[in-house]
Amino acid sequence: MNDFPWLTIIVAFPISAGSLMLFLPHRGNKVNKWYTICICILELLLTTYAFCYNFKMDDPLIQLSEDYKWINFFDFYWRMGIDGLSIGTILLTGFITTLATLAAFPVTRDSRLFHFLMLSMYSGQIGLFSSRDLLLFFIMWELELIPVYLLLSMWGGKKRLYSATKFILYTAGSSIFLLIGVLGISLYGSNEPTLNLELLANQSYPVTLEILFYIGFLIAFAVKLPIIPLHTWLPDTHGEAHYSTCMLLAGILLKMGAYGLVRINMELLPHAHSMFSPWLMVVGTIQIIYAALTSLGQRNLKKRIAYSSVSHMGFIIIGISSITDPGLNGAILQIISHGFIGAALFFLAGTSYDRIRLVYLDEMGGMAISIPKIFTMFTILSMASLALPGMSGFIAELIVFFGIITSQKYFLISKIFIIFVMAIGMILTPIYLLSMLRQMFYGYKLINVKNFSFFDSGPRELFLSISILLPIIGIGIYPDFVLSLASDKVESILSNYFYG
Amino acid sequence: MEHTYQYSWIIPFIPLPVPILLGVGLLLFPTATKNLRRMWTFLSIFLLSIVMIFSLYLSIQQIFLSCIHQNVWSWTINNEFSFEFGYFIDPLTSIMLILITTVGILVLIYSDNYMSHDQGYLRFFAYMGFFNTSMLGLVTSSNLIQVYFFWELVGMCSYLLIGFWFTRPIAANACQKAFVTNRVGDFGLLLGILGLYWITGSFEFQDLFEIFNNLILNNRVNLLFLTLCAFLLFVGPIAKSAQFPLHVWLPDAMEGPTPISALIHAATMVAAGIFLVARLLPLFIVIPSIMYIISLIGIITVLLGATLALAQKDIKRGLAYSTMSQLGYMILALGMGSYRSALFHLITHAYSKALLFLGSGSIIHSMEAIVGYSPDKSQNMILMGGLTKHVPITKMAFLIGTLSLCGIPPLACFWSKDEILNDSLLFSPIFAIIACSTAGLTAFYMFRIYLLTFEGHLNTYFLNYSGKKSSSFYSLSLWGKEEEKKLNKNFGLVPLLTMNNTKRASFFCNKTYKISNNVRNQIFITVENFGLNTRTFYYPHESDNTILFPMLILVLFTLFIGAIGIPFNQEGIDFDILSKLFTPSINLLHKNSQNFVDWYEFLRNATFSVSIAFFGIFIAYCLYKPFYSSLLNLTLLNSFQKWNSKRIRWEKLINFVYNWSYNRGYIDAFFKTSLIESIRRLAKQTTFFDKQIIDGIINGVGITSFFVGEVIKYIGGSRISSYLFLYLSYVFIFLMILFFFYFEKF
């Protein structure tokens, strides 16, 4: 219907424009900054335009699909395409990356490389969300790691090398399982390797094999998502990275795991998924409580927020494993919602760190007087994170709860138990978030900082936080914005479970 | 008329523009917004008045044509699930609407003056506007999800307003405590809602009740599970209305500004719990056990609140415990099934308590000028006394509020409390005894507050005079001589706190009061002499008209609001507005006597309850009659104490009650040691586990591989000798093994 290769352009544009940056006149950081911002905005506009005019909401099939043969030798195609599941995450990626580049304004060291890496990350993420080929998915998955590693190890905090190494080892280690899974699935059954996701979705495997594949993919995504006990890279990474990187990590990178879990584990391996889902649900429930408690025990501000995002990922796991329409919708909504909230919280933590230069919560205090605007935004976003109604987190969690209630798969007692434990997590969330707020802002304390000069957030920071806040409130008040994107796709995924 | 109902969805949205504009304005254009200052107040009062007129109109229609109006719009549309938003107007809603708007407007007018010196004047009005919006949304909501939605928003407003003066560490702790405690309630509420949805498949109130009743009648559902769900639903109101186990947040919530205590923590938000129970009463009423639990929790709270209020030194805290106790009465009434009297008490109590809180705010405002800007001092009743001379109008208003709360006949609370006491007599004699004795306690503690505040002489100066004489402590202590030590600490500070000039300056100078408030301890040492030398006595002065006006309106309400529940004899039929409103509603106890009021019985009960109240007042008068003027009455006091033959035991009892009340019934301490500590310990353990074990394994693997690599690097460093050594050692080991095997064979 439309042969224009929108997706290829969208994927290739940032990285190619980024490599052009090398040819820019070397006249300070300003040029790089503005160039990157313009590229990001252009890309976001392009994406929005393409999706506005070429994407049909009511069509659960793949749209904007492209299919080019890339490597003849083993039947490798450049296959792109989006559906209801990926459109939300792609738009989220565009939005958050643009804001993250805006947040990275204060970065001055090696800004050319920094911005190039941001742009290549942009490409990698969109490529991942829009790839329709298993091997392409894997390649994009790996492409993503390198910029993150470099961003971490060059612009991080004191322990940046340790955390960068940890990150790369964790994720590269998990990628092995992903690769095993990809190769296993593609080579099964026929002599010709099949990598097309559409074809693979209709394939069925022997039970043992399917379970093995499932475990392989699960490990890869569990590291990324993260699922306990594979989460320890996350607090270290988030604690050390520059806050613009943190925004990307919390906002998008974690969602890649959730996306993969839905895209591959749910869609391709339905039998194994229905077998594994009770366990996943238990793990998700434990994760909510466990991460909330751990977060409460953290002294480091960024680590506390990092654990809070681990805790929120538990809702995604539960939503995915409930195998119901509301549950899956809630998980997708939570992906989007936490993308905004997590990014915003990390941004605010970073900006307040820029001012106070203190990492530990118990050393802070009484900052509300000097930086009232950051205080306001921090309060609002903490409320969003603890699922206050009217914000996006609430509706996502409510729908997940709903998904468990309506699930036919589980017994009443187990449902009651799981809901009960999840709801305990609902009590723990305000405890750690509000005590964080209290320790940072409330009270009165003369802070012994050498250059005691606090500026309240300037127009750039204010613009940034408000522009993240608006979609949070928008989704919270009218969740159909996001729900309508994915609902048809969700139904078509779930139909495998009821008829298959 | 249908038109009015059609547009009633707009009710919650009318006050909404103010907080939105204020929030955006304060963030983006702070100076311009602050320059408009009082315009915002006028705007919010104006918008709230529109809602009030609207809701008055609605409720007048409800009186004449009692019917339920409901309209819903879908919020999310999906094949599997859909949430709806809408409005639901019935008598209950219209009454709550009037209550919220009237008290809201008065409090807004009041706080214009009360907060005028505060830095956060506009922030305050933004929060208030948002609170009004969400409260109106709560009472007009048509399904449980919507209730939950606004329920949490209201809780958040309460959080923000308690922590309004965020520089105070106590306020910071209090607001967090309030939010978390309320979240525990929300936890129950959400679980209850989900459970009910699982049972009935609906969130709409009317569908819910219908399906629920059918299920119960046909006995098609597990009663235990039903009771569990209903109880979980009830946990929400327990937290919101500060009922027994989750009441701990309410007294601490008094750290917020006083207008907030009047509006949120006395009249409206805490009544949201009562509202929800009343709304869901058709559901609770079919499960007798849950009704029993409700009334039990109500009666426990009644007694607990009253006993805890007995020895509070802080005037607002005392009032807070009394609020808790009165809310207990309402829950008790609901648990007994007397819907009408609970709501009647809700209305009368809201006005009386709002009056009392506004009065106490006026007192605090006057006292702040003298003792300084610190809640420990300006709200401390020990430092008050003899304010009658200085603040006569406030005194009059406060007295009327006090009398009303004690249940003295022509005033509002008498009518409603009397009804509840009557109903409790019908329900269960034990409950009736507790409820009646608590009525006496109520009279006692309310009059204690009144006497300590307004009678006698201003203790601040008195304490200054007698700062070195220990003999006069006795007459001042709240509970007789055994409190000497506890109060001593306070007295030591008192002379220092009357540094009028510095304090006054710091109060009126907005920028600095926070600093002076917090660095107070350091200032003491340096400024002490200065303060003592230049002391001139200031006396508290009456507050401005803007503060007095809302109080006077509330006095009128307190005087006459009882009338809506008094039966008028009209054309042979007993007729009162409240019954007219609630005729179609359920009334368990009065099924047959709906239109028949036995005047004799009424008179008998009224005499009984009034005499209890007078007994309480009398005791309070004996104990707290100020020292100077009570010399004449001392003989009476003595005789009263002689009459108590075992005086030591009596003192022990007093001591016990005092300690109980002073330590807040040890419940806070219990929660602190059991819950908070255990959560902290758990958090510490999890963090330890996470860091040492899960992360430790990863790091261990990393370090081990590093070492292995190093060793291999060392060994593989292309040295022939090490190769030979390794080779020979392996050969040797192999030979050894062979050797041993060889030997074992033999």
From TrEMBL, chain A:
This protein's UniProt keywords: Chloroplast, Membrane, NAD, NADP, Plastid, Plastoquinone, Quinone, Thylakoid, Translocase, Transmembrane, Transmembrane helix
Keyword set includes 4Fe-4S: no
Please give the InterPro entries that the UniProt record associates with this protein: NADH_Q_OxRdtase_chain4, NADH_Q_OxRdtase_chainM/4, NADH_UbQ_OxRdtase, ND/Mrp_TM
Membrane topology recorded in Swiss-Prot or TrEMBL: Multi-pass membrane protein
Q: Single GO cellular component annotation?
A: chloroplast thylakoid membrane
Q: Which parts pass through the membrane?
A: 6-24, 36-56, 76-105, 112-129, 135-155, 167-191, 211-234, 246-264, 276-293, 305-324, 330-353, 374-405, 411-434, 462-479
Q: Where in the cell is it found?
A: Plastid, Chloroplast thylakoid membrane
In short, the EC number is 7.1.1.-
* GO biological process, alphabetically ordered: ATP synthesis coupled electron transport; electron transport coupled proton transport
Catalytic activities: a plastoquinone + NADPH + (n+1) H(+)(in) = a plastoquinol + NADP(+) + n H(+)(out); a plastoquinone + NADH + (n+1) H(+)(in) = a plastoquinol + NAD(+) + n H(+)(out)
Which EC class does it fall in? translocase
This protein's record includes keyword Transmembrane: yes
Which positions fall inside the NADH:quinone oxidoreductase/Mrp antiporter transmembrane domain? 131-415
In Gene Ontology terms, what is one molecular function of this protein? ubiquinone binding
From the Swiss-Prot or TrEMBL record, give the protein name. NAD(P)H-quinone oxidoreductase chain 4, chloroplastic
Lineage, uppermost ranks: Eukaryota, Viridiplantae, Streptophyta, Embryophyta, Tracheophyta
TrEMBL record, chain B:
Start and end residues of each NADH:quinone oxidoreductase/Mrp antiporter transmembrane domain: 141-440
UniProt xrefs under Pfam families: Proton_antipo_C (PF01010), Proton_antipo_M (PF00361), Proton_antipo_N (PF00662)
Residue stretches making up the NADH-Ubiquinone oxidoreductase (complex I) chain 5 N-terminal domain = 75-125
The record's note on quaternary structure and interaction partners says: NDH is composed of at least 16 different subunits, 5 of which are encoded in the nucleus.
Q: Name one GO cellular component term.
A: chloroplast thylakoid membrane
Top-level division of the source organism's lineage:
Eukaryota
Print the keywords alphabetically.
Chloroplast, Membrane, NAD, NADP, Plastid, Plastoquinone, Quinone, Thylakoid, Translocase, Transmembrane, Transmembrane helix, Transport
> By which gene is this protein encoded?
ndhF
GO MF term list:
NADH dehydrogenase (ubiquinone) activity; NADH dehydrogenase activity; quinone binding
Q: Which family does it belong to?
A: Belongs to the complex I subunit 5 family.
Q: How does it sit in the membrane?
A: Multi-pass membrane protein
Q: What is this protein called?
A: NAD(P)H-quinone oxidoreductase subunit 5, chloroplastic
Domain named NADH:ubiquinone/plastoquinone oxidoreductase chloroplast chain 5 C-terminal: residues: 448-690
Q: Where in the cell is it found?
A: Plastid, Chloroplast thylakoid membrane
Reaction(s) this enzyme catalyzes, per UniProt: a plastoquinone + NADPH + (n+1) H(+)(in) = a plastoquinol + NADP(+) + n H(+)(out); a plastoquinone + NADH + (n+1) H(+)(in) = a plastoquinol + NAD(+) + n H(+)(out)
What EC numbers are recorded for this enzyme?
7.1.1.-
Q: What does this protein do?
A: NDH shuttles electrons from NAD(P)H:plastoquinone, via FMN and iron-sulfur (Fe-S) centers, to quinones in the photosynthetic chain and possibly in a chloroplast respiratory chain. The immediate electron acceptor for the enzyme in this species is believed to be plastoquinone. Couples the redox reaction to proton translocation, and thus conserves the redox energy in a proton gradient.
Choose any GO biological process term that the UniProt entry carries and state it.
ATP synthesis coupled electron transport
Q: Where are the transmembrane segments?
A: 6-29, 41-65, 85-109, 121-139, 145-167, 179-200, 220-239, 260-278, 284-306, 327-348, 354-373, 393-412, 424-447, 547-568, 606-624, 723-743
